[in-house]
Every structure is written in C-alpha cells, then in structure tokens.
C-alpha cells in the first residue's frame, strides 16, 4: 500500500521530508535482512515520480553502497539500467547543466542528479558536460574564467577526466595547483581519481607521499580514499597500500593512527572471501606498522566480513 502511494501521482500527500525518511528506513531494514530488497526497490522506484531534493538525496545515498558492492560484479549492468530508468524523468525535467537553478533546493537537486547522471549516461547530461568543458578549455585564463556552474562542477570535472585522456587530467591538475578554494580543490581531487588510466592513478598516489608534488599533506589520505572508491582505482589503491605501507608510515610518522584510515578505505570496497584472506595476511605481516591503528584494523576486518555476508545473502 505504501509503495503504491509513493509510486502514484498522489505521492505528494506525504511531505518530502517524510518521503525521504521512508526511503531511508526501508533500505535500512532491507540491509538488516528484515525486508526483501524487492519491496525496498519498489519504494526506491518511487523516485521516478520525484522532483524534490530530499527524497533524491536519501535514495541515492542508500543506493551508493549497493552500487559499490555491485560495481565489480556481472550484475552491475542490470543495476546501471535500473538507475538509468529511475533517473530519466528527473534528468529530462531538469533539462540543462548550463543554467543556474532559481532556488537553493533546486541547486542541490541538480548537483545531486548530475553526479550520478553523467557517469551512468542518463539523458544528455554527459554531452552537455563535454560542451561546458570545451568552453572552459578555450578560455584565455581558465583559473579565473570558468563558465561551468558551481553546482555541477564536480560532475563535469569528473566526466571530462573519466572519458578523457592525459591532457584532460593534466589540465585539471594545473587548476588544482592554482586554486586556493577548498571546495574547488575537492571537486578537482574527486575528478582526478576517476581516470581509467592506471598509470595516472599510480602517479597520483605516488604524489600523495611527495611533499613537493603539489598535494598538501593534509589532503594525501583524501586523495588515496577517493582513488580507492573508484572501480579501477580500488585495485590500484590496494596494491599501492600493500606495497607502500612503510612509506606511508614514515611520511606521517610511525605513531600516527592515520594508517588506520588507509586500511579502512580499502576494506570498505572488499566483497570477496579471498580479499579478506589477503587483508588478514597483510595485517599479520605488518603488525608493528599497524599497531597504532589496532582498533581500525579490527573494524576493517569486520567490515569486510559484513560485505561478504551481504553479497552471500543478496547477490546471486
């Protein structure tokens, strides 16, 4: 009955905040195994009729970990098609990346939708992103003259790096070095880690441990974690961490608990029993270096087991 209401034109009888909370609650219960994902996805499917920010924010936040789980499986294509169908109406309704929305809520909605629509090729947002980049690239001074609306910069930057070549990566890298705006640096860092070029990801990770590279020390782990979240980047980040734990420990100090955040970033992406075995072997082999982060290590191993159990129960 609830699913039917939310999937009908009368869904606005429930206010936006409550619609968002219903999505959160249903997905939480499904994650605990107390509700079938089939029913949960019927509720998520109500987003096809949704035009307000809060329900979309809630729904996409709950879909993000599932996307991560499925991104390295054979069923990712089916998940991608589901998202494309889910988002097609809102992308069509929003229409353009080039115009600044009239309200703050609409700005947040556009940013939220563009972040998913560009990489999943929903509507023509990806082609619009490419056109915006061409305008920016042709600017005589791209550091001060950026035609890309601020709300969609993260989505556009990521699109051009993901689909581009080394020239696009290097262009964004120069912008990263030249800006002092923290939001802009974050947008660019996210984008730089979306490249499909393994050598660029390796170079980026090497630079995180080089104080002269242009990556500030306080941003080194952030860059690593962003790489680890990417489909290609996970494997690169895992190998980099396993091979360079001593360098990381030396760079931040042998007593730094920051090393625990590295292992957490890797563990969050692991879904297979073999990966858990490899992580346990790595932990046993580097007990001294990981000592300052013993709690994080324990929690990381537990999180991998949770992921494995989720895959066993829900993926087939």
Report what the structure shows:
Belongs to the peptidase M1 family. Keywords: Cell membrane, Disulfide bond, Glycoprotein, Hydrolase, Membrane, Metal-binding, Metalloprotease, Protease, Zinc. One of its GO terms (biological process) is proteolysis. It comes from Homalodisca liturata. The protein is mainly α. It has 17 helices and no strands. Helix 15 runs antiparallel to helix 17. The longest helix has 21 residues. The two termini are 28 Å apart.
Features:
mainly alpha, globular, 316 residues, single chain
Give the DSSP E fraction (strand runs of 2 or more residues): under 5%
Query: Average pLDDT across residues?
Result: 93
Largest sheet report: none
Task: Give the uncertain stretches in residue-range form.
Answer: none
Gyration radius, in Å: 21 Å
As a percent range, the share of helical residues equals: 55-70%
State the shape: globular
- Per DSSP, the total helix count is 17
Q: In angstroms, what separates the terminal alpha carbons?
A: 28 Å
Structural classification: mainly alpha
* Series of H and E elements: HHHHHHHHHHHHHHHHH
How many β-strands, per DSSP?
0
Secondary structure blueprint with pairings:
Layout: H1 2-6, H2 16-31, H3 37-44, H4 53-70, H5 76-94, H6 104-117, H7 125-137, H8 153-163, H9 166-178, H10 182-192, H11 198-207, H12 217-228, H13 233-252, H14 259-267, H15 273-285, H16 287-290, H17 294-314
Family: Belongs to the peptidase M1 family.
Main location: membrane
Pfam family, one: ERAP1_C
């Amino acid at each position: 009955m609830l699913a039917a209401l939310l999937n009908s034109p009368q869904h606005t009888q429930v206010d936006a905040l409550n619609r968002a909370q219903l999505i959160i609650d249903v997905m939480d219960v499904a994650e605990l195994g107390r509700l079938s994902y089939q029913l949960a996805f019927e509720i998520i499917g109500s987003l096809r009729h949704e035009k307000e920010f809060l329900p979309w924010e809630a729904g996409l936040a709950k879909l993000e970990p599932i996307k991560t789980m499925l991104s390295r499986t054979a069923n990712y294509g089916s998940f991608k098609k589901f998202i494309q169908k889910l988002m097609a109406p809102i992308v069509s309704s929003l229409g353009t990346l080039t115009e600044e929305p009239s309200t703050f809520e609409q700005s947040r909605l556009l940013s939220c939708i563009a972040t998913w629509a560009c990489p999943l090729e929903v509507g023509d947002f990806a082609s619009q992103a490419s056109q915006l980049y061409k305008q920016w690239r042709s600017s005589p001074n791209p550091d001060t003259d950026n035609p890309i609306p601020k709300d969609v910069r993260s989505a556009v930057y990521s699109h051009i790096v993901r689909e581009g070549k080394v020239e696009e990566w290097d262009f964004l890298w120069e912008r990263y070095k030249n800006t002092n705006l923290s939001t802009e640096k974050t947008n660019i860092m996210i984008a730089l880690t979306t490249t499909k070029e393994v050598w660029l990801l390796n170079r980026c990770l090497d630079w995180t441990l080089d104080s002269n590279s242009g990556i500030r020390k306080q941003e080194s782990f952030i860059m690593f974690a962003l790489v680890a979240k990417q489909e290609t980047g996970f494997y690169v980040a895992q190998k980099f961490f396993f091979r360079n734990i001593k360098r990381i420990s030396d760079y931040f100090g042998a007593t730094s608990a920051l090393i625990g955040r590295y292992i957490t970033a890797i563990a969050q992406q692991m879904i297979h029993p073999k990966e858990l075995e490899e992580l346990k072997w790595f932990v046993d082999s580097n007990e001294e270096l990981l000592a300052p982060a013993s709690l994080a290590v324990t929690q990381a191993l537990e999180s991998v087991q949770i992921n494995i159990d989720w895959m066993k129960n829900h993926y087939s």
